[in-house]
Amino acid sequence: MSDNNNDSNTPPSPLEDWRSKRAATLDAARSTAAGKRHARGFRTARENLDDLCDADSFVEYGQLAVAAQRSRKTAEELRSSTAADGILTGTASINAEIFGAEAAQAAVVINDYSVLAGTQGYFHHKKLDRILEVARENHLPVVMYTEGGGGRPGDVDVTTVSSGLTVPSFANWSALSGEVPRIAVNNGYCFAGNAALFGCADITIATATSWIGMAGPAMIEGGGLGRFAPTEIGPTDEQSRLGVVDVVVADEASATTMAKKLLGYFQGTTAGFACADQKALATSLPENRRMSYKVREIISRLADTDSFVELRPNYGSGIITAFMRLEGRPVGLLANDCRVLAGAISAAAAEKAARFMQLCDAFDIPLLSLCDTPGFMVGPDSEREGAVRRMSRLFVVGASVQVPWVAVFLRKGYGLGAMAMTGGSLARPSFTAAWPQGEFGPMGLEGAVHLGFRSELEAEPDDAARQQLFESLVEEMYQKGKAVEAESYVELDAVIDPADTRDVIVRAFNAAKGSKRRSKKRFVDVW
Fold first, then answer.
1. 469 with 460: CB under 8 angstroms?
2. What CA–CA distance (Å, rounded) separates 135 from 91?
3. Kind of pairing, strands 59-61 and 329-336?
4. Is the pTM of this model over 0.70?
5. Does the N-terminal or the C-terminal CB of the chain have fewer CB atoms within 10 Å?
6. What's the rounded Cα separation, in Å, for the pair 493 and 504?
7. What is the mean pLDDT of each successive set of 10 residues along the chain, which is 527 residues long?
């Protein structure tokens, strides 16, 4: 008599059946698909998943889903070619070793390009909506890998909808704005609906091998706009210049490392820290007040070692927006870069800074301003960029910020631009200080002299004498606007030794608790 357990005609037990179907979704059973990814130098979705999440912490949702194409493909074909319907969703801990298991909990979404080019199908959307609801209910940050080609037309099993325009995924994702941190990561092609998800995120990371666009080649050609290769649409360097991408990295491994680091700023304070010798700050500015310097070197010295991460460095680059840590505490940084437009604030820089301020305020990350600006950028070209609307956002957003805010003027603080860097007024931050090299006034000194003393300058016929008069008037105004004078009129809280800056900032943040009357934190982009 044969043993039924060895009879090939005996159907598998429910447990065996489950194990078999589950195994079919993994890379080992999908070696051809994995090989194609590796041949391009890319990782599989599950390789990114394993790298992102703490070991053995991922709880997967909807792993056995397949595309809604049962009427056109066999069950075996669907399990093989449409595993998990092209999207891995679940919860996991990320950075638990640093922040503890409770603070490390997150929702994870990874679009799988090896399944129907990462397109979004019926059950794909159901899985996405389910995990976004879990994130909302449990207040979990979300990390989403967005590679994919947008909507999928081939889900023929779905006969109860026509346009598909009632899909709630995009509204659900957007509704998490200000509720939980959302980080989007992209590698490869990201078009249409996938690009919309990428663009809605709070922080966007893209590899150098990314192409991101609101329409892919097929949609562009279908619209009668010509034929384009996917690599002609939204390359990373272009999207970085336009401010679509916050952080550019080399590859998926670097992107995953960066996602974990950026998520950490929202997860809390680290236990240990180190920093550079602060004494060098005393000589970090050139003696000539008209010479530029590298403010990123000052930032790196002030910050905890290896904690400075800049966002959108190639867009609105006159203002640096970044995360850093001070004694382990996460801090949002705004800093003028005097090597760009001499530190003047452009429309794009103002827009970038305002959005970053909203992000930090929404998630209780204190703000630090390192100021050195002659004011807002002026001129017809600036106005053609919508300067009035975009620059004014700094005042609107600054007035609503409720987190602790510390401002330090490294050198220039002139006009509306200086006020905008401090939330609308030098009295707005919890603590406003300046280095001894600080200089202040209603507008840049040279411009003030040209306007205020035009008749005296025009009355001097000799060019050399006119220049000498001009320089003497500038020096006179400089002496009146020096930081020590501003403090004597109580326009500053303190003038500080540059070498003490880090310690002073830390103590100021320790004393500043922020508003006790926190309103709903939802915010919208300020494009």
1. yes
2. 9
3. unpaired
4. yes
5. N
6. 12
7. 58 91 91 95 97 97 86 84 91 98 97 91 91 98 95 79 81 96 97 96 98 91 90 96 97 98 98 95 94 97 98 97 98 98 96 97 97 94 93 95 97 95 96 96 74 78 81 77 88 97 97 63 49
